[in-house]
Amino acid sequence: MTSPLLPADPSSIAGHRLLARLGAGGMGVVYLGRTEPGGTLVAVKVIQAEYASEPDFRARFRREVEAARRVDSPWTVPVTGADADADNPWLATAFVPGPSLAEAVAACGPLPVRSVRVLGKMLARALSAVHSAGLVHRDVKPGNVLLAVQGPRVIDFGIARSAEDTAITSADMIVGTPGFLSPEQAEARGAETGPPSDIFSLGCLLAYAATGRPPFGTGVVDALLYRTVHDAPDLEGIGGELAGLLEACLAKDPADRPTADELDVRLIEDAPEGSVDWLPDDVVRMIAERSAEMLALPDIEPTRAEAPSAEVPPSEVPPSRRTFLLAAGGVVLVAGGGVGAWAALRDDGTPAAGSPARTRDRTIGVQADLSGPGKAAGRAQEQGARLAVEQFNSRSGKPFRLELRALDDGGSPDRAPAVAKRFTADSAVLAVLGPTDDATARAVLPVYDESLLPLLAVSPGAMDLPKAENRSFLSARPGDAIVSVPLGVHPAGELGSVRPGLLQDRTAGQYGWESVTIANAGMRHFGRVPYPRVVPANLDDFEPVIADMLKAGVDAFSYCGYAEGAARFARDLAVAGFTGPRIAPQAVLDPRFLQLAGDAAEGWVLSSSFVDPAAVPAAKAFTTAFRKRYGAPPGYFAAEAYDTVNLVLQQLVAHHGQSRSLPDRKTLVALLRKSRYQGITKQYAFKPEDGRFIAGGVFYHRVEGGRFRYVGPAPSAW
């Protein structure tokens, strides 16, 4: 399906008149266009300029173009033009005006057995052409197969590569779509991901076409990966010869799978090029309707009247950048100086007589868990934010006055949207800090987006929160995946571990999977092959796993999970007599780890997105003021909330100085997303398109004497 062009979209690309948008992602936009002259419909993929400036990414795109051009098959989509060296690299392919297999099955249900067999034969021939060109597709899935009048077409060679190529797409990265990838992909065995991997994915695709469900189920990513590697596929309802053929395709050992040519021979069906007779009537009707819809497009789709997204002026671009790509998208890491203008305004001044004329009081909101399981972090954030507002209001010569309003959502995703609506309904509220955790943040994003009220998340770190469609969101900390970088760097790069152990606790779900994926990539970057183990959720006895890992020569452990599991693991490690390096992610930096692990916690290193302000010289004045105001030292995230409010104040003061007014909500979102600010805890900078935090901000803590001791900055890239 298409959507209208936006004001920022070009009207043409290299002789292609653009009609509409077909889709957009983190890396770029795919447009529907017509060639000039001729009027042939094409799909034009255009890469965003920020990625085009990265040599590695441009090289990757050049490989995509070369890969797509090398494949010659009636069952793939031909390249009609490309320029990998343009300011915004682009690739044009013939447009297929039909639904994807995923859309067809979702709308019309599973395909009949004969349809699945014919589909399998044609896709086997497509993969035969891919493999004959020396390539591996690596993302064969229902969404990458389009159903057209002339038959199915395999699309998207964006992560295809030569079987021998390991220079650009590293072997330690999980690439592909969980649920439709091979065991070798699931375990990031990059060097083993050859043509048999595509056959496994094709088996998953055909099983989905026949049953309407993926053969390894659905759910969180780590569960899908585990089942792909260890469990038998679910082929219930598929009988006869087709079931046996799919079992062969889904063999765990790549050597046991048929080749694409062998699969073509074993599927004794006609492959009717130029016909839809092999598909059921409702799918044929869907193809016809989609084709008619596309062919009826006017020459130029009207541009939607929306303001373009703010761009970062050259003066705001960070002086240096380091980028690494995750399977789910790019994460930009920034290092560099630049002190925010508001930093010079912070002090503990007293109110002066005769305050200047000012605008009506406006409000900074804090939505937090003040009474539930995350109340320690929520209260710390509320206190840090309130201190920042009180200090601002106490200054002489301030251009306006602010109030701070805190609302408790109890850490409940069910309660959180109602709290958010109270803030969005109040026109005096300029921005909100919060919520406290990932689940409540996901629950309130639609509410804040609807009113474009800026939402700055101080503690949530899930990688799915900063997205282009979340128009009002800013992440005031690095994401959980970035905070997990030290889990690979510390043992392999800093300590020189020869055989690091990597333990994923499935209790932690997506969080554990993200952590283990990044740790694995970091270890392999330093030439270390980790010894990985995945343990079931809520495992009580780690001793057999530890014994196995120590027998394998493991000399350092990276634990990827939550505090309770880490405590059990720590105790069993201590019983085994292991005292070497042990590291875990931020979720383990929790008082429960110290309480449950006892002496076994000593020496553990934890990575985090927050500091202990009492141990940071730049935060000395803050720590003193906090103790004076609240009678206790600041908790975790208090200083980060203080910094985040001052970041907002920097933009409010600057805008007021230029226009003698405060910005509206939409303007403030744009100002914040292109801002840079040097706080007392770290530097703040954001990706303007989605509010992603891009300025490092990862730290080490170590357990010493039964407490967490702040050590200092940790790496956010390798």
Automatic annotation (TrEMBL):
Sequence positions that bind ATP: K45
Transmembrane segment boundaries: none
Molecular function terms, GO-annotated: ATP binding; protein serine/threonine kinase activity
Pfam family, one: Peripla_BP_6
InterPro entries per UniProt: Kinase-like_dom_sf, Leu-bd, Peripla_BP_I, Prot_kinase_dom, Protein_kinase_ATP_BS, Ser/Thr_kinase_AS
Protein kinase domain: residues covered: 16-279
Alphabetized UniProt keyword annotations: ATP-binding, Kinase, Nucleotide-binding, Serine/threonine-protein kinase, Signal, Transferase
Superkingdom, taxonomy of origin: Bacteria
UniProt family annotation: Belongs to the leucine-binding protein family.
Name of this protein: Serine/threonine protein kinase
Annotated source species: Streptomyces lunaelactis
